[in-house]
Amino acid sequence: MAVAHLAREPLAGVSFAVVNTDAAALGASPVEQRLLIGTKTCRGLGAGGDLERGRAAAEEEAAAVRALTQDADLVFVVAGLGGGTGSGASPVVARIARECNALVLGVVMMPFQFEGVRRQQQGNFALQELKSVADAVICMPNQKLLKLIDERMPLPDALNNINAFVGDAVRSIWTLVTRRGIVHVDFASLCAVTQGRHAESCLAFGRATGENRVAEAVEMLLAHPLIDEGELLTDSTTALVSIVASPGLAMGEMHAIMERISSVAHSAHIVMGAVIEESPQDQLTITLIAGRGESEAARSSRLGIAPPLIDSEDDGPVPIVTSRNGKPEPVAVEKPEPVATVRPRRPGQRLRQTQLPLEIISRGRFEKSEPTIHHGQDLDVPTYIRRGISLN
Fold this sequence. Notes:
By secondary structure, the protein is of the alpha/beta class. The protein has a domain at about 355-390. It is about 35% helix and about 20% strand. It contains 14 helices and 13 strands. Helix 5 (about 85-100) runs parallel beside helix 6 (about 115-135) and helix 10 runs parallel beside helix 12 (about 250-265). The chain starts with a helix and ends in a 6-residue tail after the last helix. Residues about 305-355 have low confidence and may be disordered.
């Protein structure tokens, strides 16, 4: 629904596509470009909340997904996590998009608390998988978004507001890198603060008008529930700040905004952009995207160490790094004979669970006695057998 909200007001240079396992929901989408995945796995009836079925459905249509992302420079993967299709398919789509050399930003919604523990756990698992393959993920817990909505608002209106917020987040990022401003943030700047970090990011807005618009907009921004009232900014390593204001924006106002944000996100690499446009009542809007995490290259540079060499085919000495008097120093050592090789699991590769060859013991002299039946289950049969659980 968030993509549908975006598609109602098209963005220049942006194409939209909806991917789903539910044929009925896909047919009701106003987006023209639609892809039904899992025709063999799900038969158009949805994934039934099963993450593995959602993943298999996306893998089944990998070629079609690749065709959607083949020529894109920037791909937004917008999904609701916790169910089967969003949780299973979104990491697969993100991985394929990155294989096509696109910058991949995930924008995901996490389940409400009232949706239960299982959906929460499945959503968290999917979030970690998506973070491992996307360049950055903007996480929007629905529970926090509730604070932005009047409790008395009808349910359809409340859900529409949440989808509109997610759509506005995508729109603001796109506007940030495509609209020429007096202080411009180009695509390379966005790549510099997101690419290769695999970080979880957060997004917040602040908006105000009038004489005190700077102070009010900044305070609204820092009090936003998605950044835990500013607490997440203290640990952030990157921050993109977008300022959209009327032609009357003064240098002192921009300085006051950035000084306040920098004082909170004091350890972050901050990229700022400013766009001047006509707005009602001299409105000022501040959009902030903050993330945590750093690339391996940045980490190695910060620590003054060389990255490890993996799977070297050279039979000669392997350089390693030691420290002497606080300074890294290369030392050549003879390459040892390999004892065992441990390779990381490829994205999308599933580990198969095996079953131990356990012997089922007879009930002996109780074989002919009446079984202990409780709620239709024979309690004399071991639990792992009754529930079909494989032990490994």
